[in-house]
């Protein structure tokens, strides 16, 4: 009954519009109080203790830094320079601008690790250009919203950091390395239907006002942005700094590029940048802290074991349970962001992974791919919502285009399920 009360209060608060972090914290506090009726106030001491314990983890220090990095690079005009460089490589014509948008989103994913931030940065540059070239706004919004979902997979990913904090057997470097190949595969898979749809429906036939820039000039302008992922990931691999220290290095690198190289950020801009980063980081970390109380109530009150027992003894078998989890995560991903999904479901799913002896790094990449699919699946897709707002179209108009992109990413998910080395080869090769 306590477990039922926990989930019932949580769902009621969510339906009432209460923020997800507050919903988790309040429902967990109610469950803890009900379980300690005789010593109610003493039992409720677990709430502040686990609130602090949820934040007292060293890898979490990287989150506000990577959030700040993403905002700095978005404000410094790096996205526009990367777009010019990509156009100089792929040129123009039917299907080329969508390909450019996806490639730039992959590059920005190696800097900020935030899907909505990338959707805003790339969408503000590419949607207008694609509209001038003759692409329907709904198609442009679909491509940008889907491409931004890659950022949850390609390192540095805030969601992968959260997963590594929740799962002791999956370190941050291992998760970053494991996400590299599947992330690139997702980007390449999205390019295929994007180009095919553009050619089939004869999009982009009008002359684009953005002429093809010279290759070497655009490469020189984009070189500082291209070097950022190399600095972040290469420095971690060479042992120069840890993932948390890499985030701090990336902040100073971004400030140097924005204030000294491109001179698109001034001292006056710093207050607004730090304020936006502080607000977003506070929201993320508050959700993490409140989710710690929720996870404590799940484990301490014995709620996880019956759920795990019911799933593994359902008769579905290993692959049947895996398919069930695929559809569950994709469905939940339509309504919640990746961080919230991990904080709510990973404590419940870990015993299932342990029962079937799944590799925890591989399992984390699977969960991330499932969540990525949900983030651009209508009706409530976070990334798609941002791109549709920029394109000024309703989400309903994107369904005919998004379904093809969803299918392409789903194929990558199936490949990673069938061939686990796609996710595990690189971390094992690097010794993580």
TrEMBL record:
Its main location: membrane. The keyword Ubl conjugation does not apply. It comes from the Bacteria. Keywords: Cell inner membrane, Cell membrane, Membrane, Transmembrane, Transmembrane helix. Residues 7-421 form the TRAP C4-dicarboxylate transport system permease DctM subunit domain. InterPro entries: DctM, TRAP_DctM. Pfam families: DctM (PF06808). It is a multi-pass membrane protein. It is found in: Cell inner membrane. The chain crosses the membrane at residues 55-73, 85-108, 143-166, 172-198, 246-265, 277-299, 319-336, 341-358, 364-386, 398-426. Signal peptide: none annotated. PANTHER family: C4-DICARBOXYLATE TRAP TRANSPORTER LARGE PERMEASE PROTEIN DCTM, SIALIC ACID TRAP TRANSPORTER PERMEASE PROTEIN SIAT-RELATED. This is C4-dicarboxylate ABC transporter.
